[in-house]
Amino acid sequence: METSLIILKPDAVQRGLMGRIISRFEEKGLQIVGAKLTQISPELAAEHYKDHAARPFYPGLVKFMTSSPVLV
């Protein structure tokens, strides 16, 4: 069995798209085994996106991902 981490970004959560997005995964036969609505800390975002730390978009990415709750 293969597992993947899926993060629904703040804009998807704010726009109320969580149900539609999850339905698309399920329609493709994928099984959701867990979900949690959470606020990502700047430290966690920095660790998750550390491979992009030298890129010019990195500060904005961390700011965006920590701006409001995400679905993990």
Task: Write up what this structure looks like.
With 72 residues, the chain is mainly alpha-helical. The chain has one domain (10-71): Nucleoside diphosphate kinase-like domain (Alpha-Beta Plaits). The protein is 42% helix and 6% strand. It is built from 4 helices and 2 strands, in the order H-H-E-H-H-E. It has helices at 10-14, 18-27, 42-48, 58-65; strands at 37-38, 70-71. The protein has a two-stranded antiparallel ribbon. The two termini are 19 Å apart. The mean pLDDT is 97.
Summarize this entry quickly:
With about 70 residues, the protein is mostly helical. It is built from 4 helices and 2 strands, in the order ααβααβ.
Architecture blueprint of SSEs:
Layout: H1 10-14, H2 18-27, E1 37-38, H3 42-48, H4 58-65, E2 70-71
Antiparallel strand pairs: 1-2
